[in-house]
Amino acid sequence: MRSRPTLRLLSLALLSLRLAVSAAAAAHALPRSTPEAQGVSSAGVLAFVEAADRTIDSLHSVMVLRHGQVVAEGWWTPYDAATRHELYSLSKSFTSTAVGLAVAEGRLGIDDPVLKFFPEDAPGSPSANLRSMRVRDLLRMATGHQDEPPTAVDKISARSFLAQPVPHKPGSHFKYNTAATFMQSAIVQKVTGQTVRDYLQPRLFAPLGIEDPVWNPSFQGISLGGYGLNVRTEDIARFGQLYLQKGRWEGRQLVPAAWVEQATALQVANGSNPRSDWDQGYGYQFWRSRNGAYRGDGAFGQYCIVLPAQDAVVAITSGVKDMQAVLDLVWDKLLPAMQARKLPADRAAQQKLVSALGHLVLPTAKGAATSPIAAKVAGKRFVFPANDQKLHSLMFDAAGALVMRFDGADQRLAFSHGGWTKGRAAFGTIPAGSVAVSGAWPAEDVFTAKFCFNETPFVMTLTMRFNGDAVEVDQETNVGFGSTRRPQLVGRAE
Asked: What top-level class would CATH report for the domain 36-358?
């Protein structure tokens, strides 16, 4: 056992480390300014925020930069500035940056054949198209695949990628392809001996002040590349500002300017709809956008939007089904708010904007704070038959918290009425993580609990209908890659 003086020294060391990390974060914080000082109308930004709050369900954060200065920032509670957010395919733009750095260091070339890096994973008789596939084709989503290779964490690999048929000549056919981004990550790891996350740490993350980025690995220990990166909203903004500045940061050229130009330029056509931001062409893991912009983006509304003509960056995280609607709002509201010159100070509009940004809240569970039936079900445990949601039982304890047993472990979840209570929990197939809970009784016999997993885009709603010694539970999530509704479960009191 350690002595008390030793424990005290360890505590002091940990405190010193936390203070050092906090100081480092402050040192890397982006500069702040009023909107008008950077030629942005506070009223225009407010119009964007109000429209987003009213019509988009749901934005989680927004940060607007003009001339390198943060002019507006806000988080919808229970999301906040300090918590990382899952980026999904916005991760791809970071992966291509790693490729660009490895190219600059002479570790590979974009015209290198893909098979060169994985001879041990190649099929016995590679097709001509597979033999001609190059790193450049991975970068621009033009591998020649008709169908995307497997992308699940437990299946994605160089072997599964190379086994996929390549019916089209590489470079001739755009196919959005998350497995192709994984291959970029795997190549960087092959030539550097480091995961993309570790390779970028001293070259990108640390210089930008991106602290403790989390990048989930494949079953083989390779950064997933096409998804899996988790960082904060301001980190997304820093990354966008780095690209806006042609790879230069605080006097250092972190990413070659030539690579930034190539990565964000049109490398392959992908459609012709003038109203779609997904039909404007594709670069090296960056989308071309309307209005001369480009962006990295991820599922359910994670955006890093760079507007060179306006010298601006917009970072957004969200959990939306309609990603185009968010971009439409940026073009309709934020773009006109940006003027060529500094604007006269508008204190009243600034105060309204600051107030609005400071009071953003994700919609909570709707209904009454309690119900006559609440006292009758308190302390009563409802048990469910075996199910793929791994919910074994639920009950309200003496303090009114919801206690749910998932996969053999009790999760006690205090909740707020009209607000959010934060905690940590694991829900069956959902790993342990931060969760905020809101609850209400929309009817005398119905309780609704909303669970916001505020490191992700997901909000899960459980609707519980009580009927004597039985409860019917319906589960729905706000967004998902498949059905967002789960089969109804029926539990019975013990």
From this structure: alpha beta
